[in-house]
């Protein structure tokens, strides 16, 4: 019988999440659809309810609000303003800091950052989602050299412009095997992207030589500024080709000696490639593995397996807690509550197996939940209350 290591006293830094929407969903269909990555209408309306995650979320919220059923939960949350809901849930889950990917949801839908910071009480760091900015700049610039100059400017003084690092969704576009291309290839890909701009007024950056080339500009700047770069890896929206989203595809970036000073954060535990991600965090000095406890939408048992695989091999300095919560604060909330328990139970196993003593286990819990992120993203305080 293993004893759980009690981490309830440790405030978390949520090292990967997204903005909360100013207008919260009210209808049942809209609510349910938040908890699946499936685009299939039947899955979004019905099957999502029949998942371990959704059942657990509903039961946890019934308990929290003192109500019963999905309707009860929806009525209870609708009786609060968005700011009240954020305040209540973030306080209950003791969330001391957040690192926000500003690229999703769209900024015009997001709760105002100052209002969010005030309501949540959490220290706030923001990341630039590279592909979204690249797409905007491709639309804005009709000459390749002007595009390159504007990307260089975007990435030249990231902290000076109020950001703590980058987020890349290359896995959602052309895959994680990011290569170096000739000028000729990059120009040709830019010309194709501009054809799309001319016919539709916008562009989806699916032109690999162009995206890879712009990413290298950002990575060079990140290495100089020692800025963390988060990569979406593994599980995600339906536009991810999971075959190209394994963290092993990042080999050329991790092997590049020019990028040694650029911390690479592999998101979502790379699930289902969690062992691959844990391995990379155990061999590359600049690779970190993010353990995300709301998205992917998993059972407690599978989150325990993910955490066990990570803590089994990676140094405790290389693992970081997150929710990947997005749009509604319940995701940040349930992840913090479940994440503490899951990490505590895996650390308890390490103690009963004789890997760690109790003090070392509690310290590892603090590192993963809070301290590694505080250091990596440059938070002012360490969140200890
Ligand atoms: Zn995310």
In short:
With 385 residues, the protein is α/β, with parallel strands linked by helices.
Write structural notes for this entry.
This protein has 385 residues and is of the alpha/beta class. The chain has a single domain, classed as TIM Barrel, CATH 3.20.20. The protein has helices spanning 28-33, 41-45, 52-65, 69-78, 82-93, 113-120, 130-140, 144-154, 183-200, 208-225, 251-255, 274-283, 300-313, 329-352, 358-377, and strands at 12-18, 95-101, 123-129, 165-168, 229-231, 264-266, 287-292, 319-322. The chain has an 8-stranded parallel sheet with strand order 1-2-3-4-5-6-7-8. Helix 9 crosses helix 10 (208-225) and helix 13 crosses helix 14. It is globular. Bound molecules: zinc ion (ZN). Zinc ion (ZN) is lined by residues 16, 18, 101, 324. Zinc ion binds at residues 16, 18, 101, 324.
Find the count of extended strands (DSSP E, 2+ residues): 8
CATH class type: Alpha Beta
Helix content: 40-55%
Compute the separation of the termini in Å.
32 Å
Task: Write out the distinct hetero groups bound to the structure.
Answer: zinc ion
Task: Report strand order across the widest sheet.
Answer: 1-2-3-4-5-6-7-8
Strand content: 5-15%
Radius of gyration: 21 Å
Q: Tell me the domain tally.
A: 1
CATH domain topology:
TIM Barrel
Series of H and E elements: EHHHHHEHEHHEHHEHEHEHEHH
- Overall mean pLDDT score? 95
């Amino acid at each position: 019988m293993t004893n759980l290591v009690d981490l309830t006293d440790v405030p978390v830094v949520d090292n990967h999440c997204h903005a909360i929407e100013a207008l919260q969903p009210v209808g049942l269909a809209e609510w349910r659809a938040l908890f699946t990555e499936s685009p299939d209408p039947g899955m979004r309306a019905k099957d999502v309810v029949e998942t371990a995650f959704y059942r657990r979320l509903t039961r946890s919220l019934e308990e929290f609000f003192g109500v019963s059923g999905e309707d009860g939960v929806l009525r209870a949350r609708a009786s609060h303003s968005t700011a009240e809901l954020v305040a209540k849930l973030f306080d209950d889950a003791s969330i001391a800091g957040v690192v926000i990917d500003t690229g999703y949801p769209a900024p015009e839908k997001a709760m105002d950052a100052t209002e969010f910071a005030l309501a949540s009480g959490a220290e706030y760091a923001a990341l630039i989602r590279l592909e979204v900015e690249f797409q905007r700049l491709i639309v804005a610039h009709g000459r390749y050299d002007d595009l390159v100059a504007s990307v260089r400017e975007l990435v030249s003084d990231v902290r000076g412009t109020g950001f703590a690092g980058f987020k890349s969704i290359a896995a959602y576009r052309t895959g994680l095997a990011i290569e170096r291309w000739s000028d000729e290839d990059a120009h040709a890909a830019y010309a194709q992207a501009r054809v799309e701009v001319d016919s539709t007024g916008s562009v989806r950056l699916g032109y690999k030589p162009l995206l890879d080339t712009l990413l290298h500009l950002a990575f060079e700047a990140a290495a100089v500024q020692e800025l963390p770069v988060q990569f979406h890896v593994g599980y995600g929206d339906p536009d991810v080709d999971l075959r190209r989203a394994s963290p092993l595809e990042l080999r050329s970036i991790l092997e590049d000696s020019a990028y040694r000073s650029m911390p690479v954060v592999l998101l979502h535990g790379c699930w289902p490639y969690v062992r691959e991600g844990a391995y990379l965090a155990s061999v590359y000095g600049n690779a970190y593995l993010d353990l995300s406890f709301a998205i992917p939408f998993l059972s407690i048992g599978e989150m325990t397996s993910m955490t066990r695989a990570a803590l089994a091999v990676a140094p405790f300095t290389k693992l970081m807690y997150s929710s990947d919560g997005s749009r509604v604060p319940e995701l940040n909330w349930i992840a913090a509550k479940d994440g503490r328990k899951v990490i505590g139970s895996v650390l308890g196993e390490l103690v009963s197996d004789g890997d760690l003593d109790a003090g070392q286990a509690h310290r590892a819990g603090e590192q993963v939940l809070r301290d590694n992120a505080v250091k990596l993203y440059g938070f002012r305080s360490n969140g200890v209350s």
